[in-house]
DNA sequence: GTCTATAATTTGATAGAC
DNA sequence: GTCTATCAAATTATAGAC
């Protein structure tokens, strides 16, 4: 199933590999499956990307490199806290709508081989940088504009509520007996539910 | 690294296989690694469990079978809502302390091959049953004892905040520059932080 | 039951024609 | 650049001695 935008073989491979890698992980992905998905020959994968490790690295680095900076722009901006939380939730959901398997992909490989991942991808430019966000929470607590709360736990709560539903999608869909459309509706609702839930909890 | 409790070869294999499968997933696990971990021979794995698929299924079903009922006992009990939330968080963290890779294990295989998992493991006895919990929230909202909130989103928030940190452990440890001990301390704090955060958000 | 040695299979990688 | 055919390596599975 080749995307209409993918003209060159190289681009077809990248699109196919991204799909197969994200759905099966590095170990589970088959070069043959990537070739089939791209509608080309297996030998072509090696012609363009040398070997499986290299192909994986190209995909993985590109995805992480696109993703984390977007989050960091929000975390490091000068917006008020509540607006920042709102923006984070919405931008994250926007991003995942285009790359449904991305969070899974990143966490999966981080769990599998954290050290290798760090050395190749998690460099200065591409890692999450929450320091400013944490300091901002601390400041608001001290000013007394929000309740006393641990900045770390607030950040983890925000990340958890935003990211987890995408990772646990199959479990949630089955447990709650949701179909594809209902799942998407649930996610859309969370654009407002998550900020509201957080703000209700910490506002004075 | 054989556990002192594991006397028989079969038990050694089960313990070793659980560890290797949960750390590497089905596709990434190597039969040789399981044999080494168990301190026995590779042929023994096949003698006791026929093949890799069968061994995986035995482990996986056993873990899921133990885990979900514990959660369900809480969800289906007659405790007051706030107490139920508190108990869920604490029992879940207790459980994961003994099986750190279990949530990852379950979600990983659910993402990889949901249909097969469902047919073999997710049967009547072993699936999560949140219906009573959802109804209880609905009832409290109608009584006016808590704020108006979607029961579904409250449940997802609870699951997210409790489970996500374990799944995202490598990312959190690296991003927040935590060592093993600091991570465990953070988790311990969440026993109180999560219920407090939720209750602050929904209490009137 | 447990082992060593080996077969069988899967899968990644390459050679060589076009 | 692209393909078919084939090789090489990794990995699962089994045969057979003890």
Give an overview of the whole structure:
The structure is a homodimer of 204-residue chains. By secondary structure, chain A is mainly α. Chain A has two domains: 1-50, Orthogonal Bundle (Arc Repressor Mutant, subunit A); 59-202, Tetracycline Repressor, domain 2. Helices cover 76% and strands 0% of the residues of chain A. In chain A, helix 1 (9-28) crosses helix 4, helix 6 (102-112) crosses helix 7 and helix 8 packs across helix 9. The longest helix of chain A is centred in the N-terminal third of the chain and has 24 residues, at 52-75. Chain A is globular. Chains A and B meet through helix 1, helix 6, helix 9, helix 10 and helix 11 of A and helix 1, helix 6, helix 9, helix 10 and helix 11 of B. The first copy, chain A, binds a DNA duplex (18 and 18 nucleotides) through residues 9, 30-32, 40-47, 50-52.
Considering the chains and any ligands shown, give keywords for the structure.
11 helices; homodimer; 2 domains; mainly alpha; Tetracycline Repressor, domain 2; 204 residues; DNA-binding; Arc Repressor Mutant, subunit A
Helix/strand layout:
The structure is a homodimer of 204-residue chains.
Chain A: H1 9-28, H2 31-38, H3 42-49, H4 52-75, H5 81-98, H6 102-112, H7 114-120, H8 131-143, H9 151-167, H10 169-175, H11 180-202
Helix pairs in contact in A: 1-2, 1-4, 1-6, 2-3, 4-5, 5-9, 5-11, 6-7, 8-9, 9-11
The structure holds a DNA duplex (18 and 18 nucleotides).
């Amino acid at each position: 199933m080749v995307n209409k935008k993918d003209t060159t073989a190289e681009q077809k491979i990248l699109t196919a590999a991204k799909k197969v890698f994200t759905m099966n992980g590095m170990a589970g992905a088959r070069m043959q499956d990537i070739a089939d998905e791209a509608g080309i020959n297996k030998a072509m994968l090696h012609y363009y990307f040398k070997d499986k490790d290299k192909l994986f690295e190209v995909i993985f680095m590109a995805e992480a490199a696109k993703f984390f900076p977007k989050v960091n722009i929000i975390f490091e901006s000068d917006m008020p806290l509540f607006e920042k939380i709102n923006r984070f939730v919405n931008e994250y959901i926007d991003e995942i709508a285009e790359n449904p398997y991305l969070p899974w992909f990143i966490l999966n490989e981080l769990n599998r081989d954290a050290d290798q991942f760090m050395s190749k991808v998690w460099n200065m430019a591409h890692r999450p940088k929450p320091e400013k966000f944490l300091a901002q929470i601390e400041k608001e607590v001290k000013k007394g504009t929000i309740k006393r709360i641990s900045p770390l736990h607030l950040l983890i709560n925000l990340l958890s509520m935003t990211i987890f539903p995408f990772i646990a999608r199959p479990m949630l869909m089955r447990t709650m007996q949701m179909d594809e459309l209902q799942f998407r509706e649930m996610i859309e609702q969370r654009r407002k539910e998550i900020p509201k839930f957080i703000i209700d909890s910490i506002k004075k």
